[in-house]
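Appendix C. Worked example: Peroxiredoxin
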Amino acid sequence: MECTVRWVTAKTFLAETGSGHTVVMDGAPEAGGRNLAPRPMELLLAGAGGCTAFDVVAILEKGRQPVTGCTVTLSAERAEKDPKVFTRIRFHYLVKGRNLDPNKVKRAVELSAEKYCSASIMLGKTAQIEHTWEIIDET
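Step 2, the predicted output written as structure tokens:
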């Protein structure tokens, strides 16, 4: 996996990924940014959310669960002093489907958290991680 990050102007940066996609990042105005794009740490958090959502959907589909939606809401706390690493992250999963088996949803979240989601497992090295979930039944 590769990525190149190039300084554009002020505190704006352009990341070009190995898969050929680009992402703009910017800093907060108080840090010299212009608030034109997400902060790098926001993208790190979003990446963890995308990683685990992907896992949960894939695990449920593989288990033949009729999943129709998955939203992961993340909230994070950071250290007050540099390096301002994440110290606590809460993942809340809202899984939609028809007659989903609660045990299979729970297991999908656990498998992502403990085995498959590299991003959240890596963040767990510095942060206390909490996973909660709920099911929205669409029957």
